[in-house]
Amino acid sequence: MRVATEDRKLVKRCLAGDGEAVRILVETYQGLVYGLCYRMVQHRQDAEDITQEVLLRAVRSLKSWDPKRPLRPWILAITANRCRTHLAQQARRPVPTEYTADVPDERRPEHDRELAAELELALAALRPEYRLVVVMYHEQELPYEEISEAISRPIGTVKTWLHRARAEMARRLARQAGMRGLCPQVE
Amino acid sequence: MTCDEFERGLQNQTDGVHDHVDDVAMRAHADCCRNCRELEDGFRLVAQAFAVNPLPAPAAELTDRIVAVINRNQPILSRPIRPFVWRVAAACIFGTVAFWTWQTLNRNTELPTLGLVPPAAPLPASSSELLFPDLELTGAGDPRDGVVLVEAVEPVAQIFRAVGRSLGSPVRPIAVTATEALGTFIKDLPEPDSLMIPISVPGMREMMPQQKKMTEMGPSS
């Protein structure tokens, strides 16, 4: 409730032309939007571009935001739509060569790096809507209600998609882990 | 426990809604089902994978870039309104209200008339009193000189009335005032014999005093 009130005040200031409020809004939601974009498109530059586009669109559409509803799912809905559009456009054009992890982090252990790479591949193999709910749930740690509002689907559908996505990823990761010996519990 | 029930149990575990009985049953099933055991490990790996794969940080200047783009492209956001704009707006509102009030108060004001009958045709010399009853044409002067006065004043009053009717407010009240002033002026006129207005009205020549005197003297003199 407190967050919703603060969001309303922030939006009101943005609509009044307060530049500082716009900056606060961008800083508040930039990480959330960028994280979802990055997981969806798996490319840093593209994720930044989409983040910029999403936040620009959000600020320009603030008048149409319903103050009775929370702001975060509204911004995530714009993000999800923009990511879907980007993925659809990407499917129609050649894939750049570096569309995987941009810069491997050498400081991480080999096991973690392999697992992270497997995660990227498993996410990439999911349907976009499954990927959305998995990232929102596991990475953004959003409750079902907000995910449901952001993707405009019933909570039951969110749970079903999430379970299917997790099962797909789990089988893939377990298989790869078994092959690479990453998961000693699997006999 | 079947494999489907085991999978639902995994979902409940992830959502945090499982209980101890479920755990025991699932443990027993996993011990004897390799596929379900692998699936359980896979679920654990999914959660673990997100933990070991943090998001790369966006570019440091991303916030500035976004804010700059927003500032360049935000026609819908209004600029802060300066105080003098508010003062001008308040003055405009006050002026509008004052004008509306003034107009409402003057809405039913009828244009006064001078009580004159506009001359449609050349006036007969004897109609001065009829045309201009308020003017007392007494004294030594010719009472019919008032006809000249009527002919001079009435067109001006008509112009005032026409302007008042056609333009309405705010000209109307001005026309009303002017017409009233004209009526007052006429009523306060001095004695008719002091009005030395050149007479050019047809039919008035024979009524001049000199002619009248000549008429009284008669041809016999």
Layout of secondary structure:
The complex is a heterodimer of chains A (187) and B (221).
Chain A: H1 2-15, H2 19-41, H3 44-60, H4 71-91, H5 110-125, H6 128-139, H7 144-151, H8 155-180
Helix pairs in contact in A: 1-2, 2-3, 2-4, 2-6, 3-4, 4-7, 5-8, 6-8, 7-8
Chain B: H1 3-15, H2 20-32, H3 34-52, H4 62-72, H5 83-105, H6 128-131, H7 145-167, H8 171-187, H9 209-217
Helix pairs in contact in B: 1-3, 2-3, 7-8
Question: Gist?
Answer:
The complex is a heterodimer of chains A (187) and B (221). With 187 residues, chain A is an all-alpha fold.
Describe the structure.
The complex is a heterodimer of chains A (about 190) and B (about 220). Chain A has 8 helices and no strands. Chain A is about 75% helix and about 0% strand. Chain A folds into 2 domains: about 1-100, Orthogonal Bundle (Rna Polymerase Sigma Factor, Chain: A); about 100-185, Winged helix-like DNA-binding domain superfamily/Winged helix DNA-binding domain (Arc Repressor Mutant, subunit A), CATH 1.10.10.10. With about 190 residues, chain A is an all-alpha fold. Chain A has helices at about 1-15, 20-40, 45-60, 70-90, 110-125, 130-140, 145-150, 155-180. In chain A, helix 2 crosses helix 4 (about 70-90) and helix 5 crosses helix 8 (about 155-180). Chain B is mainly alpha-helical. Among the domains of chain B are: about 5-50, no CATH class; about 125-215, no CATH class. Chain B has 9 helices and no strands. Chain B has helices at about 5-15, 20-30, 35-50, 60-70, 85-105, 130, 145-165, 170-185, 210-215. Chain B is rod-shaped. In chain B, about 20% of the residues are buried. Residues about 125, about 135-140 and about 195-210 of chain B have low confidence and may be disordered. The chains are: A mainly alpha (about 190), B mainly alpha (about 220). At the A-B interface, helix 2, helix 3, helix 5 and helix 8 of A face helix 1, helix 3 and helix 4 of B.
